[in-house]
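Standup, Tuesday
Yesterday: got the pipeline producing structure tokens again.
Today: sanity-check two examples.
Blockers: none.

Example 1:
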Amino acid sequence: MAIDVRTICLGLLSLGPATGYEIKKNFEEGPIGYFLEASFGAIYPALGRLTDEGLIECRIEAQDGKPDRKVYSLTDRGRAAFADALRVDPGPDRFRSEFLFLLLFAEHMPPDHLAHLIDERLRDYRARLKELERAPCRPGSLGIEFMRGHGIAVYRAIIQYLESNRHVLETRADRSVPAHAAE
């Protein structure tokens, strides 16, 4: 079974009431974003269906000088539906990476471009690792703390692997491809 946006919304709301925007921010800045993706175009229809099904409630909060905001919270039926969703075996992990796709064809790249790609990715991974290492964790959030630790371990392993093995690609990169061909 694949985890769908509906289940993700129920899960995030199990942590406490939130707006659609706050749910989306969890995909961009929170721990969910390291593993799953969802757009506003998927989140808001899911919230509408969950409200129609009585699994979540929506209350309107007025804001000074801003449009009213909708705050969603889990109902008892929603908690039960989420508990049921947690009993299903997850689908296989999938990892998609444009970076790895490019490395698949490393022998066709100029060496300087290949080195640039790897250096940039290492910078990105190191920044993400620092972000995870510094991220505060809510007391009692065992799952979030576990995910954070998993993310830290994965980024450390990827960084170590790239640093230790980049030479395999760089020594075989096509030295006949002009540097401007990669631009």
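Example 2:
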Amino acid sequence: MRNRKAFTLIELLVVIAIIAILMSILMPSLQRVRKQAKLSACLVSLKQWGLMFDLYCDDNNGYFFSGAGGDCGQFWRDSMRPYSKDKKMWLCPQAVKPQSAGGIPSGNWSHVAWEVRGEVGSYGLNGWVLNPPLGENVVWGRSPASDHWRTYQVKGANNIPIFTGSWWVDFWPKENDQPPPTEAGPGDTVNFNEMNRVCVDRHGGFVNSLFMDWSARKVGLKELWTLKWHRSYNINGQWTKAGGATSGKWPQWMRHYKDY
């Protein structure tokens, strides 16, 4: 009897087909695992930022930054740099490159990092946490100063964002801010629709946020409008279910996300 020393062509094709089928089954799972890993790594970074913000406030009698010290978020970036020397902590794993380094795949702003004076990051500060000097009513064009939190020692801290995934260094959201018309992000506007700087689809309909109780969690994009951004912010505004918002009211790219 003749001994077989090799596979036939049919047998090889069958093996290749089986491998292709297995790969098609496994790839989506691997992609989900990769995305989940990036989300988890981002949350870990934000929790570390929470420890550093806590240290900063303890070193300053419980208060946040005054807002003085330079534009483009220089006031918090300079202050926090000694506490966060690891540059990787400034970057969400989903947004590690600025526009200048080709950080906008398919024109999607959600995966772009900001770049300011040679520094790159993908998290931004809620400007409403600032502690403006007494007597001032306008902080970087935003008012009233009485809406700023000043300190983390307040009620409802678990619903007050401090530090959030974003495509700019700081933002002062308001309850009536319009959502971005496309997921590619709008042209930047100062003191107008600044929720757009935060409403970035970093993690499949979610963006991660650090809160004033130093906890970190993922936040639904529509849920952003229900957070207590400043002292007089209405968490039941026009972009919430309590305020009458329906899925059809949102831009097309956001309609399939969960309503809040």
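Quick observation on example 2: Residues 10-254 form one domain. The mean pLDDT is 89.
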